[in-house]
């Protein structure tokens, strides 16, 4: 039976050759063949006795069985890769593609997955629990049921096949993949371990995209037609059977080449397809086989963090992560680092689980005194935890974000991605404007300048009590503002300003700042606080928010989300005067607005400087800027410093 599906027409028939992958004597004709098991014995013995190899005998066996030339593993030199928390030991060799498995989850898809923190999350798209560290081995441990793991692997693999196809087959894969041993706590009838890719999923998926295998190779069946290969098909097979499958596919591909004689278009197409298959059957791979933490007391606890940081460093070349996916990964690194450093308080495990949102947060939320049914409370808790102004927390966040100094705007990306895990079931067309609105700036300085906590505001009376306290208490005012912001944004009533915002409100200029600045400005007005509190209650009840007009709250049944958004931005800019009238701002109000605008411009300028420094670091630029280029900036900063000092109090001592 052929392992290849040949189309009726094949226009690209340039005579593809099977590429010789041997590293030794090339004097004899090359035929791709899988070495017998006996050839792996010395490699297994060498790896098991190597002091820097910290993996199980089963993982060693997978490496040796998967090597194209297992003899080269004996005496192979291990490389050390530096990561943030220590050193990873890596062995590099050429492996059979089908003896590796794709990533158990693809970090590129973190912003698209469904999370257990969302009560409406779909089970068939739900993200898995984060892997934990093995007690003694450099191995990732997965606790999810095997059926869930296999479904996630298949889903991610099919997605990258379409999203990021690679050209393989005409040439062999030359850029190494990176893999790590994995073990499963709930394997069912499947093998309990594997070698899973952490970098190179697109290459693996493209190598296997055209492979069809006999149905009998997967499960007992009388079906004769070959079926498309999925990662789950491979991971269900014991190691020896999986290797036999590779041998069968290689043998059949060579048979197809030898049988398709002649110069007809069909014969040449069949040979080309078989050659492409053989060229895609092997990949260079570096497998992580050991880990040494900078802190010996940590043992293997930070091994998953080390693997993740290596992954993030790799994905900056061919196709970088989207910003939202990268923020999701960085956010998880931040939370994990804070947990390891003991910076999440007395109830650290519950705080960690609520922040990550990957597992059911019901019990964790309850232990923190919060109602798990309210997604806005979890989002607010994320904001509160990651805006705490504590030196150690700030240092960890700055390091993970690669910033010299941590500013409010830097925290926004990770907070948004963790917070939105409570709303991950939103349809794509609704999630896009929500993420855009929050990414433009959902935080304001006061959130880090003041200590505030999240209370269990889960009913109308609790909202009313919070509103009453918010008139005189800044922490309560911040809590009210964040809950209102999350509620309004995720329900579509406060989004990025549309082009027609001024047209909606009669041509009057609206505030086109980020949603955080809008909320902060409205929050400083008494009528604004009343309207925000009312909006929380009504949106939670599935009703439209009311508007403040003529001194009281009124319903606007004809308003869409864009209408409310435009009017709220108008109120942030002009105040809550009765419709048709607009009081001129007082001198004090004008000064306050001017100071806010000045401080916002400084934040932007500092962020731009950080971006420049990061760009120079990435590009390897070490030449200093000429004085003639930077002199105007230094002079302007010096003048600004003196001018600001003239209108400011002295710094407290």
Description of the molecule:
By secondary structure, the protein is α+β, with helices and mostly antiparallel strands. The protein has 24 helices and 11 strands. β10 (547-549) and β11 form a beta hairpin. α3 packs across α4 (201-208) and α18 (474-490) crosses α21 (526-540). The protein starts with 40 loop residues before the first helix and ends in a 7-residue tail after the last helix.
In short:
This protein has 24 helices and 11 strands.
- Uncertain regions: pLDDT < 50 for 5+ in a row? 4-13, 578-583
**What is the count of DSSP helices, taking H or I runs of 4+ residues?**
24
Mean pLDDT: 87
The quaternary organization reads as: single chain
Cα-atom radius of gyration:
30 Å
Care to count the β-strands? Answer: 11
Q: What percentage of residues falls in helices of 4 or more residues?
A: 40-55%
Distance between the termini: 84 Å
Our estimate of the beta-strand percent is 5-15%
Derived from helix and strand composition plus strand pairing, the structural class reads: alpha+beta
Shape: elongated
Tell me about the largest β-sheet.
7 strands, mixed
């Amino acid at each position: 039976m052929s392992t290849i599906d040949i189309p009726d027409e094949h226009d690209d028939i340039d005579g593809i050759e099977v590429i010789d992958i041997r590293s030794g004597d090339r004097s004899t004709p090359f035929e791709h063949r899988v070495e017998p098991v006996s050839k792996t014995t010395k490699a297994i013995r060498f790896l098991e006795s190597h002091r820097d190899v910290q993996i199980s005998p089963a993982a060693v066996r997978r490496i040796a069985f998967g090597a194209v030339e297992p003899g080269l593993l004996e005496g192979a030199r291990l490389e050390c890769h530096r990561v943030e928390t220590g050193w990873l030991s890596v062995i590099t060799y050429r492996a059979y593609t089908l003896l590796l498995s794709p990533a158990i989850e693809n970090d590129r898809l973190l912003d698209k997955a469904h999370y257990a923190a969302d009560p409406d999350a779909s089970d068939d798209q739900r993200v898995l629990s984060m892997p934990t560290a093995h007690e003694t081995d450099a191995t990732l441990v997965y606790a999810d049921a095997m059926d869930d793991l296999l479904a996630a692997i298949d889903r991610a693999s099919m997605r990258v096949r379409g999203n990021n196809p690679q050209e393989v087959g005409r040439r062999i894969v030359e850029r190494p993949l990176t893999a790590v041993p994995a073990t499963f706590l709930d394997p069912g009838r499947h093998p309990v371990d594997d070698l899973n890719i952490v970098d190179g999923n697109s290459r693996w998926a493209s190598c296997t995209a055209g492979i069809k295998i006999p149905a009998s190779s997967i499960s007992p069946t009388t079906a004769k037609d070959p079926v498309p290969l999925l990662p789950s098909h491979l991971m269900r097979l014991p190691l020896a059977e999986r290797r036999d499958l590779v041998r069968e596919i290689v043998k059949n591909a060579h048979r197809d080449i030898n049988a398709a004689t002649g110069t007809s278009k069909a014969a040449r197409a069949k040979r080309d397809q078989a050659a492409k298959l053989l060229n895609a059957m092997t990949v260079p791979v570096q497998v992580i086989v050991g880990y040494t933490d900078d802190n010996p007391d940590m043992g293997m606890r930070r091994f998953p963090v080390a693997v993740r940081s290596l992954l993030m460093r790799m994905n900056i070349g061919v196709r970088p992560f989207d910003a939202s996916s990268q923020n999701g990964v960085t956010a998880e690194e931040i939370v994990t680092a804070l947990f390891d450093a003991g910076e999440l308080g007395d109830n650290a495990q519950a705080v960690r689980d609520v922040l990550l949102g990957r597992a059911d947060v019901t019990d964790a939320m309850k232990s923190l005194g919060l109602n798990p049914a309210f997604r806005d409370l979890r989002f607010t808790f994320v904001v509160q935890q990651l805006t705490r102004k504590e030196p150690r927390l700030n240092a960890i966040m700055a390091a993970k974000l690669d910033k010299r100094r941590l500013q409010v705007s830097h925290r926004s990306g990770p907070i948004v991605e963790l917070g939105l895990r409570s709303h991950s079931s939103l349809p794509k067309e609704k999630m896009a404007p929500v993420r855009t609105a929050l990414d433009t700036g959902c935080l304001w300085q006061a959130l880090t300048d003041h200590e505030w906590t999240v209370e269990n505001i889960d009913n109308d009376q609790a909202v009313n009590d919070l509103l009453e306290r918010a008139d005189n208490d800044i922490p309560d005012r911040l809590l009210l503002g964040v809950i209102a912001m999350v509620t309004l944004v995720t329900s579509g009533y406060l989004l990025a300003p549309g082009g027609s915002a001024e047209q909606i409100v009669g041509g009057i200029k609206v505030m086109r700042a980020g949603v955080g600045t809008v909320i902060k400005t409205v929050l400083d007005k008494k009528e604004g606080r009343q309207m925000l509190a009312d909006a929380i209650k009504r949106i939670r009840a599935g009703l439209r928010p009311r508007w403040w007009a003529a001194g009281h709250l009124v319903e606007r049944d004809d308003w869409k989300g864009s209408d409310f958004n435009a009017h709220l931005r108008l109120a942030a800019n002009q105040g809550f005067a009765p419709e048709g009238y607009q009081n001129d701002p007082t001198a004090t109000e004008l000064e306050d607005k001017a100071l806010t605008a000045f401080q916002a411009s400084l934040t932007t300028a500092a962020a731009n400087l950080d971006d420049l420094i990061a760009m120079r670091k990435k590009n390897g630029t070490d030449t200093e800027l000429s004085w003639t280029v930077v002199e105007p900036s230094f002079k302007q900063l010096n003048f600004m410093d003196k001018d600001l000092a003239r209108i400011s109090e002295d710094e407290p001592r």
